Amino acid sequence: MSADVHGLATTLEGAVRDRRAIPKLTDGADLDVASAYAVQREVIERRTRRGERLAGVKMGFTSRAKMVQMGVDDVIWGLLTDAMHAESSVDVSELIHPRVEPEIVYLIGREVRSVAEAESCVAGVAVGYEVLDSRYEDFKFTLPDVIADNASAARFGFGGWHAPRDLSNAGLLMEIDGRPVQTGSSAAILGDPARSLRAAARLALSAGMRLEPGWVVLAGAATAAVPLPAGAHVRITGAGLGSVEVTT
Ligand code: OOG
Question: Where is each Fumarylacetoacetase-like C-terminal domain found (predicted)?
Answer without folding.
Answer: 98-246
